[in-house]
Design a protein that fits this description.
The protein is α/β, with parallel strands linked by helices and 153 residues long. Helix content is 43%, strand content 20%. The chain has helices at residues 10-13, 43-52, 66-79, 96-109, 116-124, 132-142, 146-149; strands at 4-8, 31-35, 58-64, 83-92, 112-114. The strands form two sheets. Strands 3-4-5 form a three-stranded parallel beta sheet. Helix 4 (96-109) links the parallel strand 4 (83-92) and strand 5. The protein is globular, with a radius of gyration of 16 Å. The two termini are 29 Å apart.
Length: 153
C-alpha cells in the first residue's frame, strides 16, 4: 500500500520525526513531499496519485492540524470522489477545540472516523495473516490506559 507523507514548509517547521521512518516509502510507491499548501494535494502529490492510477479509491489520513491540513486534504479528496478514513487517534491540533471541530466538519462532509487499530485490523482481515502478531504487539505497546483513551470528540 503506497504511503505518501507531506511536510508543511519543512525549512521552517522541520521534517517528519525520526520515529516515523519514511526513508523507504518510494520502494512501495509512496514518497515524502514538501508543500506550502495546507492540503496535501500539492502538484507533486497529485502527479504521484495520477501515476498510481484510479485503483486507489480509499485514503487513510493521519497528521497534525485536524482543522487545517487534515481537513483541507479531506475535503479535496472527497471532492475528487475518494473515500476518506480519518484515524482520530493519529490526528492532532494545537487545541482540543480545533481538533474536535476539524474532525466534526470532515465527518459531516463525508469522511469516516476510525482508529489506527481498526484500520490495521481491517487491512489484514484475520488473525492468521502473516503480519498479525507484529501488528498486535505494536498495538499493545502503544495502548493508552482506559482513562487516557476516553477523550471526547
Amino acid at each position: 500500500m503506497p504511503t505518501i507523507v507531506t511536510e508543511q514548509y519543512p525549512k521552517g517547521l522541520g521534517h517528519t520525526v525520526a520515529e516515523l521512518d519514511v526513508s523507504n516509502l518510494n520502494t512501495f510507491g509512496g514518497g515524502v513531499y514538501e508543500k506550502t499548501l495546507f492540503s496535501m494535494l500539492c502538484p507533486e502529490v497529485k502527479s504521484r496519485l495520477d501515476d498510481l492510477g484510479e485503483k486507489y479509491t480509499d485514503f487513510v489520513l493521519c497528521g497534525i492540524e485536524a482543522h487545517v491540513c487534515v481537513q483541507q486534504t479531506t475535503l479535496d479528496l472527497l471532492d475528487a470522489g475518494k473515500s476518506v478514513h480519518l484515524c482520530v487517534d493519529a490526528i492532532s491540533s494545537g487545541s482540543p477545540t480545533d481538533r474536535a471541530t476539524g474532525l466534526r466538519r470532515s465527518e459531516r462532509a463525508g469522511a469516516y472516523l476510525t482508529t489506527t487499530e481498526s484500520i490495521m485490523m481491517e487491512l489484514i482481515r484475520e488473525k492468521d495473516h502473516p503480519s498479525f502478531k507484529v501488528i498486535s504487539n505494536a498495538l499493545k505497546e502503544t495502548k493508552l490506559s482506559l482513562e487516557d483513551s476516553l477523550e471526547p470528540l
